[in-house]
Amino acid sequence: MKYKTIIEPFRVKMVESIRMTTEKEREKFLKEAKHNLFLVKAEDVIIDLLTDSGTAAMSSKQWAGIMIGDESYAGAKSWKKMEATIKDLTGYRHVLPTHQGRAAERILYGCIGGKGKTFISNTHFDTTRANIEFSNAEAIDCPTEIGKKPSVKHPFKGNMNVSKLISTIKERGQENVAGVILTVTNNSGGGQPVSMKNAKKVSEICKKHNIPLIIDACRIAENAYFIKQREKAYKNNTYKEIAQKMFALADGCTMSAKKDGIVNMGGFLALNNDKLTEQCKNELIITEGFITYGGISGRDMEAIAVGLEEVFDPDYLQYRIASTTYLGERLDQMGIPIMLPVGGHAVYIDAKSLYSHIPVDQYPGQSLACNLYLKGGIRSSEIGSVMFGKKGKNQELIPAPMELVRLAIPRRVYTQSHIDYVIEVFEQIKKEKKKAKGIKIVKEPKYLRHFTSHFKFV
Ligand code: F0G
What we know:
By secondary structure, the chain is an alpha/beta fold. The protein is built from 17 helices and 16 strands.
């Protein structure tokens, strides 16, 4: 008998208590935090869906690895283990350890970027874009058209727009395109997967034009899950084999192990090119640490080696995607507008459509994020005009293309009853949606304003 209930494929061995709070208390906390959820104390949050990055629960095997971590400065056993695991997974000749994903990005794009250079991606994650722009290069997003429409279902909405990629290469001149980056899954585009067919096409184009292809591999195991389920040619491959095939199409990767490495800190850069690796190693030593630890302690390298194996376990991946889908489908059935189909690591709410009475210059996404906290102690993040809005000549808002709120699911942390609670809170949100008020910004910094701005309900 095959049962339909997909259970968490683990038992809980250690617990961390959650302090329950009342709506009245949360009103006070939110006011103190100036209506910015990044400024709320974590202990005042009931369900924390701010990010899936570095928030995972490690397994007993990972914790066992922590105890045998080799903290030698050079040539540590733990490094050798992490290096071997990554070489086996990616097939790349060189691995450089970094303290997290953005450090790998800064080293790589610092070396191959610079003034006059262009990078093209299905969508650059914000740290990737920032590191490219910091090198004075330009970052261009070429997502598929369908990926920009929240309610239209398609199996691979994370794909690169291939014809736009070709025309952009032509326009900029292939000698000026320093790299093409495939972000799998496409985080900023709604956690949507990239198909192998699309990756192959992108790889062919890069080879033809002699442009390096880099994979942003943060969530490559989750992407492999979708390929196995949705792309017939790969249904008999293991998840790891699918990831290996994707790595084989590219020249290197950056990875934040805080996602599919199932650890709280760590990352790496992996490359085939010997000369470029030498250049990156110099940068690594100056800014992260020696080449056999980068910015990571030996014990954490042990945990990464184990996490990168565990993440491809079919039971784990099935549970992982099923739990995200469970939340998304219930919200969809309830009539909450979400990005469809549900992605891998998060459910994205279309706040512009839910709060259609709130104009975009009153930030419907920020309003929803505040209300989720007030009503249920749930912390989410606005991915809309607070995060990506720009200012026009007269200081007017040039809004982001979408007003989304992301509910990112930490790995192996919450159980189904936590998720059922989130669903119940949304029932209340739906009942009270007409009463929801807009938000205004009362204080903002020059850069990355979502982290520190102060807000108020209007
Ligand atoms: N690339 C992608 C696709 C990411 O989602 C992230 C981080 C990074 C690179 C940078 O990695 O944080 O280890 O330096 N995303 C987190 C998030 C912050 O909440 O989505 P990092």
